[in-house]
Amino acid sequence: MANDQYMTVKQIAEWLCCSEKTVNRRLDDGTWLYLQPAGPRGTRMVRRSEILKSEKRGLLS
Asked: Crossing angle of helices 20-28/9-16, nearest 10°?
């Protein structure tokens, strides 16, 4: 996987072995920056490097 690939909430949940609800909570509280979806049915996209930065700071359990 490329280091700065954009990932969907579902992909992140699978990668981190957590629920999509947990991922969405991180997005809602500002832990991870994300791209706003286009249209009402769009999915939020997060850069992989954004998650890795927080992992280095010890925010992931």
From this structure: 110
